[in-house]
Amino acid sequence: MAERDGEGMIDRMPVVDILCGPGELDKLPILIDNAVRTNESLLGTPALRAGPRGFRLSKPASDSPETPTGVERSNESARGTGLPMIALSGNTSRRSATLAAAADSLEMLDLNRSISPADSGDKKFSAYVRITRGCNKFCTYCVVPFTRGAEVHRPPAHIVDECKRLADAGVIEITLLGQTVNHYRFEHGAAVQVNGVTQPQKGRAFKGGHRRDPLAGDNVTTFADLLALIHDEVPAIQRLRFVTSYPRDFGDDVLEVIRDHPRICRYIHVPVQTGSDRMLGMMNRGHSIALYDEFIDRCRGYLHQPEIGRPLMLSGDIIVGFPTETDADFDSTVALLERTRYKNCFIFKYSPRPGTVAYDKISDDIPEVVKRE
């Protein structure tokens, strides 16, 4: 929301000093400092940072380069500093005419950035670590593949190093982030280095089964491998979580790692959006309700052990009022909720989002009053 309508929201709410999305919460100390010093409303979202009200941290050429805690520099401010900056450019050729997709080139992974949460002056015990960016799924309601581009995976050594530095700063809980986090896969044999720094790697399409990827040998780090690696290499992290999961291609190898490593939380957030196969097709979700139910059954079979104090917690996302949804489709969603029994469920009424396939191709034909029921 902040990225899509940030300028308009600031205009409508002039009393607001700072507007940012959940991915920018770690930058709040810097945003607050900039707002106080400039006395201006600031947008902290990546796609808007390049705009006239987006915050910048570039310094005059005469100053020595300096990166404030947790802040990612833009292309302009990173040039000439000598810092190993890794650009994760979005796909600016797809539908970018209606979006701020070109600003994705400003999104960086600064491997030298200070990520110590203690630097802000307040002790923090929980932190987020992004392991992938982008998505290859192209759900019709979702803008992420167009604004973030294809899936890009960080090198596992960089992820582990960031987790270690967070642990050294006092963090005891880490959540790994990715749009489809279980698709994480890094092929070391194809790794590219620039100035001695291993670069993030575009993900490739792979429809895996329930077992470990048969093409993943010792030279590949899968998501299951990464979870085990962080668990074993960073023992100070007492709780390791991850979001968001995609039900297809979620292997038993991941479930086994969660089961066998006590500090990995048995919490899986796996959106389904609807309980209707017809609506899944309209949404281009790429899986069936039968597959989702089978996945939930596998999760419970591996991870639900309340008798030893290790129950499985599930959460999901639901969209109601998607175009052409009928009462029968809605009833199928209610039935799915009743049998899945999420611990948490995030339910949204559909609203068209510019830049998505649904916005351009599918009429929003469900009345607002029906969506709100």
Describe the structure.
Helices cover 29% and strands 16% of the residues. It has 373 residues and is α/β, with parallel strands linked by helices. The strands form seven sheets. A three-stranded parallel β-sheet has the order 5-8-14, covered by helices on one side. The protein has a three-stranded antiparallel β-sheet with strand order 6-7-12, with no helix packed on it. It is globular. The protein starts with a helix and ends with a helix. Residues 46-121 have low confidence and may be disordered.
Key traits:
single chain; 373 residues; alpha/beta; Transcription Regulator spoIIAA; 3 domains; 3-stranded parallel sheet; 3-stranded antiparallel sheet; 12 helices; 17 strands; 29% helix; globular
Largest sheet: 3 strands, parallel
Helix content, binned percent = 25-40%
Mean pLDDT: 78
Share of residues in strands: 15-25%
What is the CATH topology classification name of the largest domain?
A: Transcription Regulator spoIIAA
Summed up, the helix count is: 12
Distance between the termini: 23 Å
- Please write the CATH class name of the largest domain: Alpha Beta
> What's the alpha carbon Rg, rounded to whole Å?
21 Å
Uncertain parts: 46-121
Shape: globular
Order of helices and strands: HEHEHEEEEHEHEEEEEEHEHEHHEHEHH
Oligomer state of the chains in this structure: single chain
Number of E-state strands = 17
Count of all domains: 3
Structural class: alpha/beta
